Amino acid sequence: GRMVEDLVMQVKKDGDFLVYGTPNKNSYPGYIKRMNFKEYMPYKNHSYTRPKFRQIVKYYPFLKKLEFIVNKIDNVYVSSLRVIYKIKNFNIIVKRGEEVPEGMQVLWSKVALLKKSFSLVRGLEYWKYRYENHPLHNYLFHSYFDNGTLMAVSVTRIMTLADGRRTVVIVEWMCCSSLNLSYIINDVVHFYRNSDMDAFLLWGNGKNLIDFKKNLFIKRKIIPIIFHDSLGTQTPELYYDFDFYMGTSDAI
Prior knowledge:
Blueprint: H1 2-14, E1 20-21, H2 28-34, E2 37-39, E3 45-51, H3 53-59, H4 67-88, E4 92-97, H5 104-113, H6 124-133, E5 140-146, E6 149-160, E7 166-175, H7 181-191, E8 199-205, H8 209-214, E9 218-222, E10 226-228
Parallel strand pairs: 7-8
Antiparallel strand pairs: 1-10, 2-10, 3-8, 3-9, 4-5, 5-6, 6-7
């Protein structure tokens, strides 16, 4: 509690706009009841998962005989969707690596112009600090270029959940309006399709629900986002268009 109070005081001095967090169920009551944080319910942020069939078999062993054929069907679906997107985006070249791709600042400038509300500042400095110069884990950039121009980027990492599931996490993404988010998710799923993983995981809100469903992601639990109430956060309509990712939390 003292650390949070000191943080809020420092932010006020610096003139920054807000303090936010993603508490777990144990710390959530303390933030809300004692530290002047509020959760704005109109904004719904959820976790979405795409389990592999072998994960289902762990819970229902009698389905083991179906695993081979289900995996074949799933691979056909992923590959077919990929072909459709490749036809629509035949100019796109995908590059992967651990360094921030060239053109990130220009891409952010395009994305920022589309913002109806507000966002974290996700320019070149942010991406280099978060994933290249001060990484918490090993991250992989998936970069999408059209005739040398960066059109989109996503970041993934491999993590093991508390229950032992090896999971591909789509940590964060940024794309201009001309490139469909579903294409980016499908590309990541296709890239890891034969890896030794149990599931895919991401965080998102309702406006991307169609893109998630096309890639067979299932909505799971709500991820609460809380804001300190003394820093201009009294107008909840500001947060309807807030894009929040696992990468913009301390959860990954």
